[in-house]
Design a protein that fits this description.
The complex is a heterodimer. Chain A is an alpha+beta fold. Chain A has a single domain, classed as ATP synthase, F1 complex, epsilon  subunit superfamily, mitochondrial (Atp Synthase Epsilon Chain, Chain: I). Chain A contains 3 helices and 2 strands; from the N terminus they run H-H-H-E-E. Chain A has helices spanning about 5, 10-25, 30-35, and strands at about 45-50, 50. Chain A has a two-stranded antiparallel sheet. In chain A, strand 1 and strand 2 form a beta hairpin. A 5-stranded mixed sheet of chain B has the order 3-2-1-4-5, with helices on both faces. The longest helix of chain B has about 70 residues, at about 215-289. The radius of gyration of chain B is 29 Å and the shape is elongated. Classes of the chains: A alpha+beta, B alpha/beta. The interface between A and B is medium-sized, with 30 and 33 residues.
Chain lengths: ~60, ~290
Amino acid sequence: MTYWRAAGLNYIQYSNIAARTLRRALKTEFRADAEKREESFIRITPWKDGKPIKTSSPSSSA
Amino acid sequence: MFSKTALLVPQCMQQQTRNMATLKAISIRLKSVKNIQKITQSMKMVSAAKYTRAERELKAAKPIGAGASAFYSKAEVTTPEGTESPKELLIAVTSDRGLCGAVHTSVARWIRNELQTKGDKVLVITIGDKSRAILQRLYGNNIILAANEVGRRPPTFLDASKVAQETSKYNFTSGKIIYNKFKSVVSYTTSDLPIFSLASVTAAPKLGVYDSLDADVIQSYLEFSMAAMLYYAMKEGACSEQSSRMTSMDNASKNAGEMIEKLTLTFNRTRQAVITRELIEIISGASAL
């Protein structure tokens, strides 16, 4: 059991945090381009019985 | 007296629709078709620009998808037979935007065929409003997650990982990602990427070809490969959508051009007819004097 899994993260979240940190550490001329890859607008709604569930869980940003 | 005018009114209306008014109507129609053509032409330009970008990004994303699916074929992962209550997961990769030919409908049709035979044992995740809109009426009960706000921007890995994150909350024995595989500017095929559960990967017969695997590594890799394959499928889907929109907008502009040609011809003919009729009226009126 790795330390990040013990903290309740899974590998996707773990690697995305690592990627974000790496992007922040880039030099400014590369950083602007890299940070464009960090945005995400997708919205996910859980569905049940053919209808969206109103109280949508806070979209877990990885 | 009144009955006579009542009889006359429809007759004179008919006359109008046949001649004078049509000139006006045709010119209005002509103008609107010209506007439509302008819109489709500019949409084509926009999607052509988006397409070149999507293709460039797809090239970069291809190894990601190939690597993820190579693992499953090398290790010969199959879904274990004879599990009680098998749950199949289907992920439809589409987008929110229409006017791009049959890209979304072909994905939805693929899933519909699957659902018709397998029924309620299948869970569906729809990425993009289009596949949700098509599937929700008949198979709304199968949908467990619906993602939207897709397709305005090129898909990012963060988008894919969010979907993968939500997907990991559901249990399934086997699954498929259904997406449009980009072949060339004018063609795509609707294909599927298999996804597997942890149980079926650990039971794979040739897992031994990979070195130093423990349960934790497999689980981490599975989580990552889910996001990677979704990312790849979304890139493929976005690229085929843009290319398909490009061709369909090109066709729409062409059709509008044809319509404009025909309408201009009828417009000119009608105008000529109106002029001739007026001349005849004037001349015959003059000769009657």
